[in-house]
Amino acid sequence: MKKGNEEINVPDNLNFLEFKNLLKDKKGIFLEIFKDKNVKFFLNLEEISNPRIRLKDGDQVAFLPPVTGG
Amino acid sequence: MMIKITKKTFNLEKEFSRVKSIKNGGYCFFLGTVRDDIKNKFTKVDSIFLECYEELALKQLRHLRNQAIKNWKLNDCLIIHRIGKIFLGEKIVLIITASSHREEAMRSCEFIIDNLKVNAAFWKFHVSKGIQQAVKYKQKDLNKYIKWSDVVKF
User: Fold this and answer.
1) Measured between beta carbons, which residues in chain A are less than 8 angstroms from residue B137?
2) Are A68 and B119 inside 8 Å of each other by CB?
3) How far apart are the C-alpha atoms of B1 and A2, rounded to whole Å?
4) Residues in chain B within 8 Å Cβ distance of A36
5) Domains contained in chain B, CATH given
6) What DSSP state is assigned to residue B153?
7) I need a surface site. Which of B9, B13, B28, B75 has the fewest CB within 10 A?
């Protein structure tokens, strides 16, 4: 899994679950990412607890593999 | 600056001067360095490479610092985490906790490093002959981190 970022245009009023489905259809790599139970999802630097949270213009969504600092 | 993510190394005495105060009766230092005995499946590791999601990592470090200060009533706390290529023996991470008494400084320092291991947006890679391999966290590190949830409620 590589680090990177991308700006994506999506339909208005999408929730995070719908956004994930859209990404899965767009690129195969996301299928792999979403299958991994250890990946954590963040929205504007906050971990997502409600997958039905609505996304708005300018939101930053991140998919993070397990971390190893220190 | 009490929270720092940097590609450069740091000077211990200079960083200590940031938290030094006559209010403190004790300090606890944790300095993490690159060991020379790390081996992957094939060969000996000659350096490590650290990546981070800087915006999130800074936010997490600030939060950890605030938690430690609040929970152990620390007088001060400093956290520095390096990123980029770091060679054997070099410094990776520095935590200094400062308090009136030693116990608070020591416990809070342990809390911070246990969190950094598994709960901050850094990714470590072993580098051997130019090839990078992602490092996975150890179960024992995860267990240590989980234990703190009973101690720190903030």
Assistant:
1) 66-68
2) no
3) 30
4) none
5) 3-150 (3.90.1170.40)
6) -
7) B13
3-state secondary structure B17-58: HHHCCCCCCEEEEEEEECCCCCECCCCECCEEEEEECHHHHH
| ipTM, interface predicted TM-score of the complex | 0.86
Q: Given CA atoms B124, B128, B132, B136 in this order, what sign does their dihedral have?
A: negative
Query: Three-class SS of residue B98?
Result: strand
Instruction: Mark yes or no for CB contact A45/B137 under 8 Å.
Output: no
Kindly give the confidence (pLDDT) of every residue in chain B, 154 residues in length, as a single tens digit, with 9 standing for 90 and above.
899 999 999 999 999 999 999 999 999 999 999 988 666 566 788 899 999 999 999 999 999 999 999 999 999 999 999 999 999 999 999 999 999 999 999 999 999 999 999 999 999 999 988 888 899 888 999 999 999 988 887 6
Pairwise CB contact (< 8 Å): A64 & B53 = yes
In this complex, is the C-beta atom of B133 within 8 Å of any C-beta atom belonging to chain A?
no
Instruction: Note whether B121 contacts A67, CB cutoff 8 Å.
Output: yes
Inter-chain CB pairs, A–B, below 8 Å: 54
| The residue count for chain B | 154
Task: Rounding to the nearest 10 degrees, give the CA dihedral for residues B59, B60, B65, B71.
Answer: 120
